[in-house]
Amino acid sequence: MLGKLLKYELRYMIRDFIRIYLFYGALVLFLVFMTFLIKVDNGSGTLFISLYTTLLSVYSVFTVILAFLTITHNIKRFRVNMFSREGYLTNTLPVTPEQHIVAKLIAGAVNYIISYIVILVGVFLLFSELGVRLSISSLFRDVFDLTKNGKLLPQFLATSTGFVALLLCGYLSSAVRSMIGGSKTKGTLLLVGMIFGYLFISIMISVTFESNGNRYEARSSGLESYIFSIFHTCIAAVEFYFITHIIKNRLNLQ
Amino acid sequence: MENDEKTGLQTPSVNAGPDWGSEWIFCPVCGEQIPAKGAFCMHCGSNIQEFRVPGTDSDVASAQPQAQQGYPQAQQTYPQAQQGYGHVQQGYNPPPKFFNPSDPRLKQFQSTTLKPEQQELVRCTNLNKSYGMQSAIYDLNLAIGSGRIIGLLGPNGSGKTTLIKLICGLLTPTAGTISVCGMPIGPSTKALVSYLPDRSYIPDWMTIRDIIEYFSDFYADFRAPLAETMLANMNIRLDARMKTLSKGNQEKVQLVLVMSRNAKIYLLDEPIAGVDPVARDYILDTILRMHNPESSVLLSTHLITDIEPVLDEAIMIKCGTLVLQGEANQLRSKFGKSLNDIFKEVFAGC
Q: Which of A3, A214, B155, B293 is 20 to 30 A from B341 in CA distance terms?
């Protein structure tokens, strides 16, 4: 059943994001072409330069939006699919709430990876045309160094568990919002509160390392990343428990 | 009792309580308040027809206000109204009492015993469901057997939708137990239950073909060829998106999808509300033709007149409590009226 859920989640994701990726790709290609024209014709007009600069700004903003959109889209998908009128279909499937949540987490992770690759490719193309040397080999060398020093795994764990905890934070705020009557303001405040709470605890962990004077050693050995991994995992487990509890016992569909 | 100077009739005194008017009379046997047009007393089961004077209009009580008002036609035609029932003349003044579900005399209509040939599909034992301080289902004991089309009848807020949602797993009980085919509610019971909610629940962006594939993937008992045939008969294209269909067609599509499953129990929440009479007939015909004869269909509705011809059994609930459950034919013969009229008597004053 998990595979079938994942199939429809990925299908929904592709349906929504294919247009965004195509637009992003078109924007990048257009900017690359304009960069090429500027390099060929050094005396490009002021209007052309203004248009190029504007589009470059749009591209930068759109890149940031795309990164955030991946996460917000996944959270919105969870809320609509589980707690709106679609919930009458979703919650009557012969599937456990845990499977629903895991399928959406996996789809969110896949979406984020694809978006990351799309952004990287776009940046590489644009910067190459701009003449900025971006060496793929240097990128791999950095990864190799991280692996050699044993820092890749803890940083990967910290990042991935943090991503899962962030998504589950959004799911939990959607579930609580549904449980208390669907108030958008309350749901948003709850989500913001949870994110601030997470940031506060993260800062406290970092400050603890720094105050003890062993921050550099902790960073170089990956210990801080491991601590964050454990912290994110605990947060994610608590969030997972409460989300499934709300779906099983406190479901309040529109 | 007071004597009307004009007509000479004896009327209830002004302090007798609320104006019961022509709608109510008192049972000559138990003295309980009953609808005037009924054939049987719903409290003691007595046949009040025996107490009517033969050769007259059986609807004597409705003539009472006219007689009291001094209509000469009423006085001439209905001498019984002029004379008044002896019990009325004696000044019965009980407090107004509507249909009391806890009345022990109703036990004969609150049976949860299934026939030997029936398989138990749903069993509710001391079922309670509360929304905060408000009780929606209160101490409900109910059993639903196989092979029936059952009408779940009750006024607004009586707990019909809550009961249906409890069976299909959208809600969890506050107390008590509920089981489907002997199993507690969970993914395994959801595979046996086919649910049609009272609203559109299919995503607008999906095409009919997408949703058929969706149902085929998740429900092993879904009969895709049957669904496609039914939809083709309704001239609905499989590549049409749900948002392009009219409300009536959307409901038909949802009904076809639900009934195309070979489920054990079909839960239909207000399937004919908000559709035109032609579509209503089509929906009822679809339900009759497509459901598995070994399964049961539980229909929740207010439009009793329309569904009464298809019902095998009726369950009436009021304030989350079971009032009546019985075979439709038995109820009709016992009370001597249609389910619609029984419904009106049961829920009068709600």
A: B293
Residue whose pair of structure tokens reads 């298809």 in the numeric block: B310
CA dist., res. B93 & res. B291, Å (int):
51
Q: Is residue B96 part of a domain?
A: no
Q: Quote the pLDDT of residue B29.
A: 64
Is residue B202 included in any domain, yes or no?
no
Q: Which residues of B touch A (CB under 8 A)?
A: 168-172, 186-188, 190-191, 193, 195, 197, 199-203, 205, 214, 217-219
Binary contact (A94, B191; C-beta < 8 A): yes
- Compute the nearest-CA separation of B150 from chain A (Å): 21
Residues of B in contact with A91 (CB under 8 A): 169-170
* B295 is a domain residue: yes
Range of the domain at B339: 104-192+263-346
A94 to chain B nearest CA, in Å? 4
Please state, in angstroms and rounded to a whole number, the distance separating the CA atoms of residues B65 and B23. Answer: 10
| B309-344 per-position pLDDT tens digit | 888 899 988 888 888 888 888 888 877 878 888 888
Query: The pTM is what?
Result: 0.75
Residue A245 near chain B (CB below 8 Å): no
List, in sequence order, every residue forming a beta bridge with B299; answer none if it has no partner: B151, B268
The torsion defined by the Cα of A23, A28, A32 and A35, in degrees rounded to 10, comes to 100
